[in-house]
Amino acid sequence: MYYNMSMKTLGSILLFSLFFRSDISALERSVSFDQISDLTALPEKARAVPAPVIGETADETPGFCVFNGPSGSPLADAAAFKSVVGDGDAIYAGETHDQKKDHNAQLETLKALGEARGEKIVVGFEMLNLTLQPILDEYAAGTISEEEFLIKADWKKEWGFDFDLYKPLFDFVREHKLAALALNLPRKVVSKIARVGLDGLSPEEKQYLPARVEITQNEAYIAYLKESYDNHGKAHDPILGGLKKGMDEFTFEHYLEAMCAWNEAMGARLADFMNSNPGYAGMVVAGSGHIIYNAGIPASVASRTAGLRPVSFYPADAAACPAALPAEDSDLADYVWYINHSTTTAGVLK
């Protein structure tokens, strides 16, 4: 086995830990995004985008070891990879946040999607909460500089991971004039649900959520979240061990509600865009904990759209490419991309 449950769970721990901070300001404004009419349809546009080359990034290349999850068949080459991505309408590209190789794999995926769909692409970013959409629009359109974007979006506080990890993805969006979506919930909403549950939210806070929030019934995903929950506050957990001190205790039921609300909100954002803009392809850039088992964002989008062809990629840690897909990995995603995570080139900003 090339990685264990604790490695998979680490992704969930990392992404969830970012939402437990005491310095979050009051909710900026009322937002409702569950209605299709809330998103303006984009004009019809298309133009050629340079073809991708697998592993063309200058350093920290992800390698090319990709298996079809359900069938276990390996993708033979770049042409097969591009065919898979190009045939998809909703692409879910997972990541371990501090792993540059994962982000380079996301970039290769976006390049393949760009070759197939031209400018008719929207890229959704977990890294930005939905109140930052106007700032993301400015940056994607090239009307503000990278420096202005990082200041206005308060990237260091909002996300915390080195922007250089994500810069090539944003550069591609800007260069090819793609649409971009800020997918995330404000941290305050996620952390409050974890403490008091959905019923404990104020009317103002509920406006950040879609009208419908389903609690997952996926048993594998629930078990995955339960392990993440059980790891909170343990001595060997350098992230959550300290964060839980001085914070209200939360039950697993509320933790589950928080994760599901989080997934549902991000899925609804993409679904609303896709419903308003027929013919577009969407790509989600998010932590693997939101994509694993197709139970998070992919399930949310599927429940709100019809006829979209989803393709999910789970980046699994492996020292070497396995000769065959391990049986226990077959349900991780539509495709499992084995990447050596031994090198960390950037991480959480201090």
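(ticket continues) Second input and output from the same batch:
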Amino acid sequence: MADSSITIKKLTEHTGGEMRKGGYAEATIATYEKIWRMFLVYANRNGVEQYSSEFAHKFLQERFGTLDALPRNYTQAEYYRGVCRLDDFYVHGMISSKRPLCKRNYSYPPEYCDIVQVYLEKRKNAGLSRSRASSYALYLERFTMHMQITGIKSFGHLTAKNVQSFVEECAETYTASTVSGTIGCLRVFLAYLNEIGETALDLGCFLPKVRYASEDAIPSAFSADEVNKVLSCIDRCNPKGKRDYAMLMLAARLGMRASDIIGMVFQNLKWESSMIEFEQQKTGKSTSLPLLNDVGDAIIDYLKIRPQTDSKQVFLRMDPPFLPLANCSLYEITSNYMKRSEIHIPPGKKHGPHSLRHSLSSLLLENSVPLPIISGILSHSSSDTTKVYLKIDIRQLRECALPVPVIGAVGV
């Protein structure tokens, strides 16, 4: 669509009509129409009649201050969804996604944009995974924003001091893992800038060496009883519960990553051989896992009520439009059931889908499953990666404990 001459009033009418055709509830449409009226009042106050995505962003920014993160409360979420529906229909001529304006799109100041995008495309073509490419895009967005704020006009004006200043700022704001990832990304990017002649020196040489290993962190895992409580609290008498149960079973019983569950397509399911075969979103490697009976039953139970669409994705939204779930959906779903189950979640303990993957590893270790086999189940490239779970195997850690001599004993 993207008709620059369409008025905001006309766009709201068209969008409401499209939502009614798509089967949205009248109560939902009424909520959006209330927000659209507020948008119209704002537009009239600013003397704007025609719709534009930029003006929609301005409306949300002035009302809530920032678009850098997802909505922080219910009112914000309502406004974001309402305006995003308008923008979705304006750009695509159809209602195709839940929160397009809230989706994280990385942007770079114009003076650095072309070089960064060429670099990222080069890395993707060289085999950089989608997950890692997304991380690199984020790190470079932060770096170039820092350059712009500090008045650096081009990469050619960069100095070692500028680079070190950025890293120091990151160290004050982010975790050791994020700082380590940022430095690793910058080291390669700065070498690239030197290689193409944008900088006279390879400024990556001035980056500090930060030691961070994944084994430094202790995985967040729950006991088998706690995981069962989470699964048991899911209401499997309704369609959404059947879908959520199937997804959480894949995480809890097979240790699948959230991105692989959300991205699962029908070709992944091999009923004849009782296997699930998929390409890992994180690594791009092909993986096969046994389709356990209880997992298979959960998926079949969901497929019986799955919305009838042409989508290749297995897991869809249960309300129209019936589209694939967003990448963040499984985290929200898992977190909600964790809280509903009333299991104890200490402050700072992670309780998303990855914690179910950690919990499976813990359970396998408790049952004395060899580390190489656990590595295979979790699709780790090396048993060294899996060793981090040894920290949560309390039973075997107790066997490593040395006797503590009694204070004052002879010979001490």
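Agent notes: The first helix runs from residue 8 to 21. Confidence is low (pLDDT under 50) at residues 97-103. Closing as not reproducible unless the customer responds.
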